[in-house]
Amino acid sequence: MRGLNWFDKFLFFLNSLFAVALLFSYLLPYIPPSTFALLSVFSLGVPFLMLVNFIFFLFWLFRLRRQLLLSLIVLLLGFNHLTSIYEISSEEEVTPEADPIKVLTYNVRQFNQYGWADRKDIPQKISRFVKGQDPDIITMQEYYRGELNIANSFPYKYINQKDQNAEFGLAIFSKFPIINQGSLDFPTKSNNNAIYADVVKGDDTLRVINVHLQSFSLKPNMDKLEKEHSKRVFLGMGQTFVKQQRQMELVVDLVKSSPYRLVLMGDFNNTAYSYIYRELKSEGLFDAYKEAGNGFGRTFDYKFFPLRIDFILADESLEVLKFEDYEVPYSDHFPISATFSLK
C-alpha cells in the first residue's frame, strides 16, 4: 500500500473487509439453512455487498489506484450473482414455434383487507391490471377469496385456503381447462403453502406450481430492526430459512414426480443468492428473468436496494419469449410475467 496516506489505508482496509464478505457470500447457496441457520440470513445482504464493492471500485478507478483490482476481481468472480441483480437481455423478437402462453404471478397482500394502504380501490385496480395484461394463467399468493373481478376472463380456477378458518391462501386462474390439481399442505405451523394445477392447452399439458414459502414474522426493513432486539430478529429469520428448506424439499419432490413439463412460480421469500433458490433451479429449471429480463427485476417494495424474491422458473424444454416486471403500487410485492413457447 505504498503511496497511500493514512485515510486511504483505512478505506482500503474497509474495502478488504467488504470484499472478503462478498467472496464468502458466494458460498451461501451451497450451505443448507438446517446446517447453519444464521449464516443463511446473510444471503439477504448480497446486493448491498455488491453495491459497496462497486462503489469502492469506482473510487479507486477515479483515483487511478491499483487497489481497484481487489473489488473488481471479487465482482468478476461472482459475475453470475451480478446478473441476478441487473439483467440486460436482447431486444430481438423470437418467433415461437407454437402458440405462446403467458403466465403471471403476484402476491396481492390480501387485496388490502387489513388496511396497509390508504387506498380503498385496490381490488378494482388489481382486477383492471390483470385484464390489461391479459395473461393465460395467473398464480396469486395471499389471495383473499371473492375480491377479484376476473371470472369472465378465467373460467377455470383452483383456490386453496390451507386452513378452513384462514381468510386467504393461494390461487391459480386459467383460460384453459384444469384436469388435475392438488395442495402440498406444508407441515409445521404455517399459513404458507404450495399448490399445483395441470393445465391443458391444445395437445400440451403444463403443470403450474404456485408457491409461497415461509414468510418472515418481521418485515425486513431497518425500522423494525431498530425497534426489535437484533439477536432475536436474526434468530427468527434463521429459523424461517430452516422452514423454507423443508418446504422447498416438498416442492422439489413434486417437480421430480411431475409427468408434464412445468412452470414453478410465486413468492419464495428468499433471493437468488440462497440455497433455496439454487436447489429449486437445479431440478432442470431456468429463471425466466435471467433469460429474458431487463433491469433490476425488483419484485419487493424495499427502499434500500432492489430485492427480487418472486420468481418464474420454467422447464428447460420451454422457450421464454418475453419477461416483464410491473412496479404497480397495489401490494408490497410487484407482479411479474413471462411468455413461453410450448415447443
From TrEMBL:
Keywords recorded for this protein, A-Z: DNA damage, DNA repair, Endonuclease, Hydrolase, Magnesium, Membrane, Metal-binding, Nuclease, Transmembrane, Transmembrane helix
The keyword Transit peptide is annotated on this UniProt entry: no
Listed Pfam families: Exo_endo_phos
Spans through the membrane: 12-31, 37-61
GO MF, any single term: endonuclease activity
PANTHER family tied to this protein: TRAF AND TNF RECEPTOR-ASSOCIATED PROTEIN (PTHR15822), TYROSYL-DNA PHOSPHODIESTERASE 2 (PTHR15822:SF4)
Residue span(s) of domain Endonuclease/exonuclease/phosphatase: 104-333
Cofactor(s) the protein needs: Mg(2+); Mn(2+)
Protein name, UniProt field: Endonuclease/exonuclease/phosphatase family protein
Signal peptide region: none
InterPro entries given in the database record: Endo/exonu/phosph_ase_sf, Endo/exonuclease/phosphatase, TDP2-like
Superkingdom classification of source: Bacteria
